[in-house]
Give the backbone structure.
Amino acid sequence: MANYTTINKSGDYFNTKLYTGNGGTQSITGVGFQSDFTWIKRRDAGNNHRWTDAVRGVEKEIYSDGNWSEDTRTNGLTAFSADGFTIGNSSGYNGSGGTFASWNWKANGAGSSNTDGATNTTVSVNTTAGFSIVKWTGTGNATTLGHGLNAVPKFWIIKNLEQAEDWRIYHHSLGNTKKLELNNNEAEASDISYWNNTSPTSSLMTVGSSNANNGGSRNMIAYCFAEKTGYSKFGSYVGNGNADGAFVYTGFKPAFVMVKEYGQTGNWLMWDNTTPNWNRAYKMANEPDAENTADNVSIDLLSNGFKFRGTAGDSNGSGNNIIYMAFGQSLVGSNNVPCTAR
């Protein structure tokens, strides 16, 4: 059966843009839209992952490979533009001769007030793409937050912006009693303080009393994702430890994949389809290391999913339980419009 989607061009909502640093300032174009969340990583050297979004504002950065609070960097990402963004001379954004990857998602600008939950939020949301950025002031106690998606989020990422606290991740495959931490390789953990043992709804997400995901009087940020047919998928699989590795059906050709072994320690491995030698080249969201290339983490990005060709434990270990997030493009759009596979 053909897989239909309301998103005929995934590049209108998510896109990877590679560029080379010039050591000064430059405008990066070719993203295809005005990004509201841009994640930048220097590929050729060890350097922190930098996250900037339109809700917190330009020059504000957080780092997925560390638990540090938000920082202000005036020579980092200084502006979002209609087709990309502008960067200064920070080596983590624009080191001379350095090679960089940027992953870009479209929400809806600086956001607006949302009063759906017990705690008010500022929400920048793109309901078509199933992506919202949610900012609020933490309460220190369990509370509900409006996420604006008009769909149940399957995956979200939270960071306390004012304190050195580990990142918190909710994934529907683990359920409402479990969390993972983006900045390290630890296995899943259980505690009512994470999500108050409460599953999200089409309008609300619940956070518990943990300082890391709802610190009292602290500015908090969340990146929330709902699944959209033919564009995004958040699920789990079991590795087989073989070079003829596990196949994961997504219903579209992935352009970006991130996985995490959750039953035991494992790195957050990432691939995208624009990086040279992409099927063997990977990055780790929880580590500042340069891009690595290895046969044992090789991946095939297929027309309807992805398949591992390596035996690495973090991505395809025998019997290992692994979650994933993937974005891409269906081969058949709405009204039976064919989409060209890359």
The longest strand covers residues 253-261.
